[in-house]
Design brief:
Required for the export of mRNAs containing poly(A) tails from the nucleus into the cytoplasm. May be involved in the terminal step of the mRNA transport through the nuclear pore complex (NPC). The chain has 24 helices and 4 strands. The chain is mainly α. The protein is elongated.
């Protein structure tokens, strides 16, 4: 029955396909990228294909059922074979089973025997049939595997060729990109190298330019330095030459003053004639000329050769004047002698011999006075007093030399505390109230008396060091004079409270007063009064310091500053001699009262005036002390004022240049106003009784 046979064959196929799907190979997963799994897959493809283990099961279970219908038409068998060949992938292969059922299999044992041989003979024909079918199935399977392997190999070959083409394309593209990358990097490197070379060239050019510039600057600076050195050397030579010229000018001035004194002494025992008066007037002009030259060179620098030539010509002219004056005096004396001789002869002829008349006395000036020249040097007694004060100051410095020269930190601390305790209270003096001034006085008095005083948060006493008292007295006196030089010079009314306190300390501690005078005379020699003389071999800077100028780094202070400092110290001195401390017990006399001021005024008027300095200091003294001198000396004071106006002012005017007439005009106006009103005004800032009650 063909339909039944077809159904069985179809069922067999389904079972075969189901068995193949259930096999291990049927359960494998195939991937498109199987080539990427490695070389194992290729080796597996290249190996000899073998039947699956399921091929025997197919032969055992499928083929026996198909043998029952072998009597069917050949078409069914062919159809079955064709169907088996059409789907070889669904028939499992088993090389073991195929070999077992193969008719030529050498493994079939030849078992002699009855039953067993019969059994084997009974099954020999079916086994042969199954072996033939198995061979057919195995061939189909092998053919399918071969076809599949050929297709896989071809696909693999095509895929490999495609991949090789892609790889070659990618390789070529990568090579091209790498080439372009290398070219770009090479261009970049070439550009960087070019830029670097340009930068280096530019830096080299800039360095060369900078080097040339530095060389030029160095040459310029070297030239400037050489020029400065040359100028400094020239300036040093000019300074040395100027110092020599200035010393020569001082020597010429001294000689000219000496000649002027001789000129004034010529004919002083008789009435001077017109020619002698003219010579003396010319001598005063020459003296003022040299004084003006020296003052101008002191302010502006070193004297020039023209100044020295003018001074030498003035000195020569003074010598000629003295020679002419002496010649006139000799001529006049001879004329007087001749006249006396003739008169005696006439008298002898006219009178009797027994009558004798004495020769008349030399004629005198008006009022029985005679004109005398002014002094250049201070009186011997005043000079001796000045030297004693300076020696006392030097002895005081030597007394505390161990304190100032000690390197012990404790001693240095004591020295600083004592200096602050002595100087700070003096700096606090003001015109606020008398009670404040009394507190300062008590603090200074207690310090000098050996009592402890507060200073900087600590208690300080002169008993802390054996040399403490000498040190405090010296520093206190120095500070008083320093206040006059600085504070009083700027604020004239500050002279009175400082002078009052200094006067009170002077009464209780006389040594402090002597040290004040020593410092005052040293810083302001005109308060002696003293005009220091220039000695041979003395340095110019030392002489300027002796005159009161401050010299720092070979530079002399300006004339205005110098006059201001001298004025401040002179005002302080004029205030001290007229004031007394109002508190406590007073002595009968002032330790340095108005009599010393009268002595100073008399001595300054007996000395040759100095340009600008004499007028300034004289005006300061009279403004501060004139009212007190007027009250004490009365008529004598007014005679002194008249003498200054009529006799001394013309002398000052004769030596004062047109650019220095300010102080002289103020002095002259002050004298005229006082003489006109017959009163000297009370100075500004004078301490009244209301101040001491405040």
């Amino acid at each position: 029955m063909p339909s039944e046979s077809r159904r069985r064959l179809s069922r067999c196929r389904r079972e075969s396909l189901q068995a193949l799907r259930s096999s291990g190979k049927g359960r494998l997963c195939y991937h498109r990228d199987w080539l990427l799994r490695g070389e194992g897959v290729l080796e597996e493809r290249a190996s000899t294909p073998q039947l699956s283990s399921y091929a025997g099961w197919v032969v055992d279970h499928v083929l026996p059922h198909t043998q029952e219908n072998l009597s069917a038409s050949e078409t069914s068998t062919s159809s079955s074979s064709t169907s088996g060949l059409d789907q070889p992938s669904f028939v499992p292969r088993s090389p073991i089973r195929s070999l077992a059922f193969s008719p030529a299999s050498p493994r079939t044992p030849a078992t002699p025997g009855g039953t067993k041989g019969t059994r084997e003979s009974q099954h020999t024909e079916p086994m042969l049939l199954r072996s033939s079918r198995g061979i057919e199935v195995e061939g189909c399977i092998r053919m399918y595997e071969l076809v599949h392997r050929m297709q896989g190999t071809e696909g693999l070959r095509l895929w490999q060729e495609e991949q090789e083409r892609k790889v070659r394309a990618l390789s070529e593209m990568a090579s091209e990109q790498l080439k372009r990358f290398d070219e770009r990097k090479e261009r970049e490197h070439r550009k960087e190298f070019q830029d670097l070379r340009e930068v280096l060239d530019k830096s080299s050019r800039e360095a060369l330019a900078q080097q040339e510039k530095l060389k030029a600057e160095h040459r310029h600076r070297a030239e400037i330095l050489h020029l400065k050195l040359w100028e400094a050397e020239q300036q040093r030579l000019r300074r040395e030459e100027g110092q020599l010229r200035l010393r020569s000018l001082y020597a010429l001035q001294e000689e000219l003053l000496h000649l002027n004194q001789q000129l004034d002494s010529v004919g002083q025992h008789r009435d001077p004639k017109v020619d002698l008066l003219a010579l003396r007037s010319r001598g005063k002009q020459l003296r003022g000329l040299i004084s003006g030259i020296i003052r101008t060179t002191t302010e502006n620098g070193v004297p020039t050769a023209e100044d020295q030539a003018v001074a030498e010509s003035a000195l020569q002219e003074m010598r000629d004047l003295l020679t002419e004056a002496r010649a006139c005096e000799d001529k006049r004396r001879r004329q007087d002698e001749e006249e006396a001789r003739v008169k005696r002869q006439d008298t002898q002829v006219q009178q009797r011999p027994e009558v004798h008349n004495e020769c008349p006395a030399p004629s005198q000036g008006p009022g029985g006075t005679r004109s005398e020249g002014l002094q250049v040097k201070v009186q011997d007694s005043t000079m001796q007093w000045h030297q004693q004060l300076q020696e006392a100051s030097r002895q005081c410095v030597l007394a505390f030399e161990g304190l100032t020269g000690s390197k012990d930190s404790q001693v240095k601390k004591i020295k600083m505390d004592l200096q602050k305790a002595a100087t700070i209270p003096v700096s606090q003096i003001s015109t606020i109230a008398g009670s404040k001034l009394k507190e300062i006085f008590d603090k200074i008095h207690n310090l000098l008396s050996g009592k402890p005083v507060p200073s900087g948060g600590r208690s300080v006493s002169v008993t802390l060091n054996p040399q403490g008292l000498d040190f405090v007295q010296y520093k206190l006196a120095e500070k008083f004079v320093k206040q006059g030089e600085e504070e009083v010079a700027s604020h004239h009314e500050a002279a009175f409270p400082i002078a009052a306190l200094a006067s009170g300390i002077w009464e209780l501690h006389p040594r402090v007063g002597d040290l004040i005078l020593a410092h005052l005379h040293k810083n302001c020699p005109y308060s002696v009064p003293l005009y220091p003389a220039f000695r041979e071999g003395m340095a110019l800077e030392d002489y300027q310091r002796m005159l009161g100028y401050q010299v720092k780094d070979s530079k002399v202070e300006q004339q205005d500053r110098f006059l201001k400092c001298m004025s401040g110290m002179m005002r302080l001195y004029a205030a001290i001699i007229q004031l007394r401390w109002p508190y406590g017990t007073r002595r009968e006399v002032h330790p340095h009262g108005l009599n010393h001021g009268w002595r100073w005024l008399a001595q300054i008027l007996n000395m040759e005036p100095l340009p600008d300095v004499t007028a300034t200091l004289l005006l300061d003294f009279l403004e501060l002390c004139g009212n007190a001198l007027m009250k004490q000396y009365q008529a004598q004071f007014w005679k002194m004022m008249l003498l200054i106006k009529e006799d001394y002012c013309p002398r000052i005017e004769a030596i004062t240049s047109s650019g220095q007439m300010g102080s002289f005009i103020r002095l002259k106006r002050f004298l005229e106003e006082c003489l006109q009103r017959k009163e000297v005004p009370v100075p500004n800032g004078f301490l009244t009784s209301s101040f001491w009650r405040s």
